[in-house]
Specification:
Layout lengths: L1 E7 L22 E5 L6 E4 L3 E4 L4 E5 L4 E7 L5 E5 L4 E3 L6 E9 L17 E5 L2 E5 L9 H13 L4 E3 L8 H6 L8 E4 L5 E3 L13 E6 L12 E9 H10 L4 E5 L1 H10 L7
Parallel strand pairs: 2-8
Antiparallel strand pairs: 1-9, 1-15, 2-5, 3-4, 3-6, 6-7, 8-14, 9-13, 9-16, 10-11, 10-12, 11-17
Length: 273
Amino acid sequence: MQQKLLKKIISSSLIIVFFISLGSCGRNKPKITIVGSNKSDTLIFNSEDTLITHGVLDTIRLSSNRNHEVTINGSKPLKFRVSNKDGILNTAKNEFILLSVEFQSDGTEANPMEELEIHADSYVKIDSFLICKKRFEKELQDINKLNLVIDSISLSKNGNYKTAFDEYDYSSYYDEDLTATFYGFKKIGASNIFIEKTWDYDLNEEIPERIVVETSNKNYNPKNYITKTDKTAIVMAKSFLRYATINISEFAVININEQLKKRAKKSPPLAKR
């Protein structure tokens, strides 16, 4: 086996480093990062364990593969299930973005096979803004495509839209399955109480400038092509919105507030019971 050093090619300015307190017991239980509000909250788990939070982030360890419930300042209990993996307990109903972080080696030329890769267009909605990779911005100049995206993403659970290569809309599956493969970034909506960890770098974790990966003889590279590997990070959605707005060469951020208002006026009122 060989080791290869890869450099990060995404700005680390997006990742805000938080400090959290780590529990000293239950190391064999999944670590749950509690993402709450800026104020101190009193959380009671399973009517037994009390935790007083200090700031936005704190942690607790809970039994795996079990149903749990938590009350926040005496509120109605929130029910959730913890698997055998770490995750986030979203007590303040925040929105998050899963972000792809690409690392690449110091090769001398690009691998021509990568030029043949095709990525489906994908979009996320944060507040009243539609965000996509810059390469997909032209797609939205077609008013029919723009309306299709807005109509679909407005009804989605998490705020994602994606089409396949044959233009078949399977965005509902893509939106709700948080483990589905994504290109660039993907949103996790506020309605998710417990979010099982599928990412490499946590909210409180700084993305390294370089990583070391192992390669085998099967990865023989006689022309010294640039090799790439992807890792994933999770960030707050509003932080990502600010980041995308600044980095106009990489992202397109479109204000769809007027379109959303028009759709709200057309929606029939809810029937009274």
